[in-house]
Design a protein that fits this description.
The complex is a heterotetramer.
Chain A lengths: L3 H17 L7 H34 L5 H19 L18 H32 L5 H16 L2 H7 L11 H10 L1 H25 L12
Chain C lengths: L1 H22 L2 H4 L15 E6 L8 E6 L9 E10 L5 E7 L5 E4 L8 E9 L2 E4 L18 H22 L10 H16 L3 E4 L8 H20 L3 E5 L2 H17 L11 E3 L4 H15 L3 E5 L6 H10 L3 E6 L5 H7 L2 E4 L1 H11 L2 H33 L3 H13 L4
Parallel strand pairs in C: 8-9, 8-11, 9-10, 11-12, 12-13
Antiparallel strand pairs in C: 1-2, 2-5, 3-4, 3-6, 6-7
Helix pairs in contact in C: 3-11, 4-5, 5-6, 5-10, 7-8, 10-11, 11-12
Chain D lengths: L1 H21 L6 H17 L10 H12 L5 E7 L5 H17 L3 E6 L2 H18 L9 E6 L4 H7 L3 H4 L26 E6 L5 H12 L3 E5 L4 H4 L9 E4 H15 L9 H36 L1
Parallel strand pairs in D: 1-2, 1-4, 2-3, 4-5, 5-6
Helix pairs in contact in D: 1-2, 1-11, 2-11, 4-5, 4-10, 10-11
Classes of the chains: A mainly alpha, B mainly alpha, C alpha/beta, D alpha/beta.
């Protein structure tokens, strides 16, 4: 019993949604499904939030290593939750927009969350450089192609690319780095993207079918 | 000098700089009320402190990064839970469920919406919460089944239409572009970027590239002989794709760093 | 009795259209034929029919304009509707220059309507003759999606056929995927070094099929982890993923015969914020120093941050995603990468179960179909455009119609 | 002066690392981070700018405007929102300066509601102060925003007045002298769409440039540029891609019209640190390969 019912729910819901694409009057089920998902996700917040609080309070009680940082997390979580749910400092009170300028919620977002967000994002500039230094090495043919393609595009994005190959006559102008970079983006890159996308779509179709037919059961406690 | 004392000295220095910057920033505040100036002075300095703490991770893991990380986790978890509450619960559920709550939250009550259906996700949501009770925790699988069924159902047709069908039809490209016969083709042949030859070459590369790329993804056929060659060309095309898109995105990443450093030098030290 | 009813309806209809015409400003009535400013353009012809492929409640009105819209002072087309049952009539919409059709969605399926379209020129109304009666209806099948349905059935049919044939035990060749073989090696290494493995199932919620793919692979890995009794650390960005992941790992431990070794804290919720989650994962990496890192699911810009940090602590990294924009970073920074479709095939590979492997053969048939169609399409397009042959053009247009998303 | 300091610091450092690599040593990733951070910081502090050289895909747009006879009619459509503005606004301003400097007739319009407000910012910050003698209705006019996305183009390609009975300030088109010989888009010499989303450059090509056989050029955010490359050179005479495209156009503008030199070229200033960072990354790739081949050869010898 434990296993049949979930399988039944899964196949029924999935099949209905697949069919709803083809029946005009059932098409709204698609939006309903994503709305229902959001509502269930809100319930799941209790599990997630609960877990966050439990894990960090446990760390604090057991004074395990780095418990002071758990205090910081719990404080941050508490403060943000309170200022958000009660809209403290929000000029229009409970009806005001959550991120109304002037509300403490917006202040915390603007001066704590967004600098952290954009700085984490900015770390990518460093990581892109170290990944390039380490990964683009001509170890084998594939790695060499990877290196050459990245090298041409990188050069094409700077004035260096133009200066290096300006001397090439108009008849061979595709060999000028900026044009070569555009050609690489236009032809091989486009072909690769297309092949990957067709592959992905077939992967999703075969996986969804495996789910709907109940062949893929590891998460539902099936016994395969 | 143990690392403990080094750490203490470092923290003291950071606190000192923080204080100086706070005072300076509050002083240069434009708004008339002293309280806002002091508060904004603190907030700007704190933003700078967080920025530098994150950057310090590049050197190695340290208490400043741990502080910034744990604060970020706490604040952002709270942020998204408030967002979830206001936008989904108050925004979507309340208008469909009860008139009194809608008035309380000043949200337009939806008259004709089919109310009973809105209780389906509620029931599945409650079932999900049964995970907290070990005895009947397995009931939560019903909610998971609902969600996974919905995801599989929605994505099957979506990927079929948006990726499979449209990418196949986009691949119907002519292998001879504005063709006026072999003679004309031969005496205009050149590697000029906007020339006919390059246009034709591009379409050939796209056609062969897509076919070989697909061959690479074959699972159930031995990649040997002609099939093996096609698969090899396929992986080469994929490597060009990865190299090209890696190189192309580098600029976008660097502009993010330029933005942060301009913030540090401009808004904080205003030496720009 | 039926005849009486029909006559009654007829009377109502005639009286209502007379009523409608009398209602209009008088001087324009007799000007129905004589068009303004002397040019003798013919009357506007109007056609109305039920809007096709919809859920009912909508009528499409189309009209041909002999030339009124080209005249200076033309202000728009007024659409006038009469409900032939109740006799009430009202203006529906004024459409601007250049539009010659309009979907009137404010009708109900159970009454019939007749439409008039008037060209408004210098505050005069040139009325058209009333259209035939029309009643809106709901369609049960969207005819524009016929080919999408046929293609879907073909591909799904192939997948199901090979799933069934695999059940009958036909042996199936499967090419090697380096990334999948590396998984056992990575878990083994983690066990020897007594260090945990880190598993990230993407940063999307359960509404993304890549997250589910990641979780199914987690199912197989968790079984090996249960046997070797390795520690597993799985930070998640969505509470639903946490619940599903715990369910998956618990099931793996039960089937491996070690239900007691399972502990809910292996999977822990961090935050819903993309970069907050990444900051925490980086923290876990440098502090717990996992021996193997698995990034399997949907990733965005943060993919490289995790992969580079994982590389800096010397862990074996196996990544897999179906996000084309992130594949280059994983290919550059990780030891093994599952490219697009390989992520979805991984769980079938790892389970080794005949029916799942059969579905991969079905996907291959899909690729074969795609290749054949592209080949035919390209040949037809080439010949049609280069030597403009009619028959090839017909084939090309047929293929484009078959492969339109509708 | 700044250039010399950073050249010495960065260049010297890179040479030192190259020397290390030749000895087969791999450099620690933190050194790479240090270099990237230092390069970008120095480039920002010393406001380094490099002479961007226009690539053919940008040069073709510049030459088209440069060589059109004075008084030609050009449409500039603002199809973007504030999020894309930092990347594409410099392009729009560079186009305004170039078109009015060459005494062409400039027709502003927008397919995005947000484009309308960004357009008025450009008018006040760039057009009015730098071209005091440009008269509204004679040298330039603003048709404003019209909803309907590509539907607007379907109408405007046959008849302007039907879609735009009056311009953004409410005066009828016939009252504007520059509109006397303009019946539809087909009378225009060049269409330029600046933006990166939908409706954008692609819609201008498919619904205006192609059907009307009118020369069309575009400016787009970097992320959407690759999708537009296939249209060049057959359906798009040229395309400015991201900050780099804007910087190339600005450099070309200063070279041929030095009067704009001190007007502040945002894209060029942004490209300074970008170019420096790119050069450092390219250098590290080269060094990485040198280290790899040296260590492989050493492995073979031992």
């Amino acid at each position: 019993m434990k296993r049949q019912i979930p399988m039944l729910i899964l196949s029924a819901v999935g099949t209905l949604l697949v069919v709803s694409v083809f029946i005009p009057s059932a098409r709204h089920w698609q939006e309903d499904a994503s709305l229902y998902f959001d509502i269930i996700a809100v319930f799941a917040f209790f599990l997630g939030g609960g877990n966050l609080i439990r894990v960090h309070t446990e760390k604090v009680n057991r004074k395990s290593t780095g418990w002071i940082y758990s205090v910081v997390t719990l404080l941050g979580f508490g403060i943000m939750l309170v200022t958000g749910l009660f809209k403290i400092g929000n000029p229009n009170g409970i009806a005001g927009d959550l991120s109304q300028t002037g509300s403490y919620f917006q202040l915390l977002f603007q001066y704590v969350m967004s600098p952290l967000n954009s700085t984490m994002y900015a770390l990518l500039a460093f990581y892109v450089a170290s990944a390039s230094y380490r990964a683009f090495r001509a170890k084998n043919t594939e790695a060499t192609i990877l290196l050459v393609a990245a090298f041409v595009i990188l050069l094409g994005r700077t004035a260096l690319g133009v200066l290096l190959t300006n001397w090439i006559p108009a008849q061979l102008s595709v060999l000028q780095i900026p044009n070569l970079a555009i050609w690489i983006m236009n032809a091989p890159n486009l072909a690769g993207q297309r092949a990957i996308m067709i592959g992905i779509s077939l992967g999703v179709i075969s996986m969804s079918l495996r789910l709907l037919l109940g062949i893929e059961r590891s998460y539902l406690g099936g016994d395969n | 000098m143990t690392s403990k004392t080094a750490m203490r000295i470092l923290t003291a220095i950071v606190a000192l700089i923080f204080l100086i910057s706070w005072i300076m920033k509050s002083g240069s505040g434009m708004s008339d009320s002293a309280f806002t100036n002091v508060r904004d002075g603190f907030l700007v300095t704190f933003a700078v402190f967080l920025t530098l703490s994150i950057f310090s991770f590049l050197y190695r893991d340290n208490p400043f990064y741990k502080f910034a990380e744990s604060l970020y986790v706490g604040i952002s978890a709270g942020y998204w839970m408030c967002y979830g509450f206001w936008s989904t619960v108050v925004g979507n559920f309340v208008p469909r469920a009860s008139r009194s709550l809608s008035e309380f939250f000043h949200v337009p009550y939806q008259e004709h919406a089919d109310h009973i259906l809105i209780y389906i996700p509620i029931i599945f949501g409650l079932i999900l919460l049964t995970r907290l009770l070990p005895k009947i925790g397995w009931l939560s699988r019903w909610s998971l089944a609902f969600i996974i069924g919905a995801t599989a159902g929605l994505n099957l047709t979506r990927y079929l239409r948006s990726d499979f069908i449209s990418q196949v039809s986009n691949s119907f490209i002519p292998l001879f572009v504005d063709w006026k016969g072999v003679g004309d083709f031969v005496n205009h042949i050149s590697l000029a970027a906007d020339g006919q030859f390059i246009a034709i070459l591009s379409n050939w590369v796209i056609f062969v590239g897509v076919m070989c790329g697909l061959v690479y993804f074959f699972f159930s056929k031995e990649h040997k002989g002609a099939f093996g060659v096609a698969s090899r060309v396929g992986i080469w095309i994929l490597m060009v794709t990865f190299g090209a898109s890696f190189g192309y995105t580098v600029m976008g990443r660097i502009s993010l760093l330029v933005g942060r450093i301009t913030f540090l030098f401009g808004d904080w030290l205003n030496i720009l | 009795m039926l005849a009486l009813l029909r006559i009654a309806k007829l009377v109502v209809f005639i009286s209502s259209s007379l009523f409608v015409i009398s209602l209009l400003p008088t001087h324009s009535v007799h000007s129905q034929d004589a068009s303004p400013s002397g040019s003798n353009l013919g009357p506007i012809t109007v056609r109305a029919h039920d809007t096709d492929n919809d859920a009912g409640g909508s009528v499409t009105v189309e009209w041909d304009d002999p030339g009124y819209e080209k005249m200076s002072g033309f202000a728009g087309f007024l659409i006038w509707r009469t409900n032939t049952l109740t006799g009430t009539s009202d203006s529906v919409e004024v459409t601007p220059f250049g539009t010659h059709s309009y979907d009137d969605r404010s009708v109900s399926d159970d009454s019939t309507y007749s439409y008039l379209v008037a060209a408004l020129v210098n505050s005069e109304r040139v009325m058209s003759a009333p259209s035939m009666q029309v009643r809106s209806a709901k369609q049960w099948f969207d005819s524009r999606l016929t080919w999408v349905l046929i293609l879907g059935l073909i591909i799904c049919g192939a997948v199901i056929y090979f799933i069934e044939s695999a059940k009958r035990g036909t042996k199936l060749f499967l090419r090697r995927i380096a990334g999948l073989e590396a998984i056992d090696e990575a878990v083994g290494r983690a066990t020897e070094m007594g260090r945990p493995i880190l598993f990230v199932a993407g940063i999307q919620d359960m509404d993304d099929v890549q997250t589910i793919a990641g979780l199914t692979i987690l199912g197989s890995i968790a079984r090996t982890v249960a046997e070797y009794d390795t520690k597993i650390n799985m930070p998640v960005r969505a509470s639903l993923v946490m619940t599903a992941a715990r369910e998956t790992i618990k099931h793996a431990y039960v089937t491996a015969g070690r239900p007691d070794a399972y502990n809910d804290d292996m999977v822990h919720y961090v935050t819903d914020e993309q970069f907050g989650f990444v900051a925490a994962v980086d923290g876990i990496m440098v502090r717990e120093r996992p021996a193997a890192c698995f990034f399997l699911g949907a990733f965005f810009a943060e993919s490289l941050i995790m992969a580079e940090t994982g590389n800096s602590i010397g862990a074996i990294q196996v990544a897999g995603t179906a996000m084309p924009a992130q594949l280059p970073f994983f290919v550059a920074a990780c030891d093994y990468t599952l490219i697009g479709e390989e992520l979805f095939a991984a769980s079938a590979y790892l389970s080794g179960e005949p029916r799942q492997l059969g579905s991969l053969k079905g996907a291959d048939v899909g690729k074969a179909i795609a290749m054949i169609v592209i080949l035919v399409g390209v040949i037809a397009t080439t010949i049609a455009s280069a030597w403009n042959s009619e028959s090839m053009l017909w084939i090309e247009n047929l293929l484009r119609k078959m492969f339109s998303t509708g | 002066m700044g250039l010399i300091i950073s050249a010495v610091v960065i260049g010297g450092g890179l040479l030192w690392i190259l020397y290390l690599s030749i000895k087969g040593q791999d450099v620690d990733r933190r050194i790479v981070y240090l270099f990237v951070g230092a390069t970008v910081a120095l480039a920002i502090i010393f406001r380094l700018e490099f002479g961007e050289v226009a690539t053919p895909i940008v040069k073709s747009v510049f030459d088209k405007i440069e060589n059109l006879p004075a008084g030609s009619k050009i449409v500039l459509s603002y199809d973007f929102d504030p999020a894309m503005a930092p990347e594409v606004n410099p392009m729009a301003n560079a186009f305004i300066r170039h078109i009015l400097e060459k005494k062409h007739r400039l027709f502003f319009m927008s397919l995005w509601a947000t484009g309308q407000s960004l357009l008025s910012v450009s008018l006040n910050d760039v057009l009015k102060p730098e071209f005091p003698d440009a008269k509204y209705g004679v040298d330039y006019c603003n048709l404003g925003y019209k909803a309907g996305n590509e539907g607007v183009l379907n109408v405007v390609i046959t008849n302007f007045r039907k879609m735009f009975p009056s311009d953004a300030n409410g005066n009828s088109l016939d009252s504007l002298p520059m509109f006397k010989d303009v019946e539809s888009l087909k009378d225009m010499d060049l269409l330029i769409s600046v933006g990166g989303g939908k409706p954008g450059v692609k819609e201008w090509v498919l619904f205006a440039g192609d059907p009307g056989k009118i020369a069309t050029a575009g400016g787009s955010a970097a992320v959407s540029t690759p999708l537009l490359y296939p249209y060049w050179p057959r359906q798009l005479i040229g395309l400015l891609g991201g900050t780099k495209g804007a910087a190339e156009y600005e450099a070309e503008l200063i070279k041929t019209h030095p009067r704009f030199k001190d007007k502040g070229m945002p894209a060029l200033r942004m490209m300074g640190p970008q170019t420096m960072a790119h050069v450092v990354i390219i250098a590290f790739i080269v060094i990485g390969n040198v280290a790899y081949f040296r260590s492989r050869r050493k492995g073979k010898q031992s």
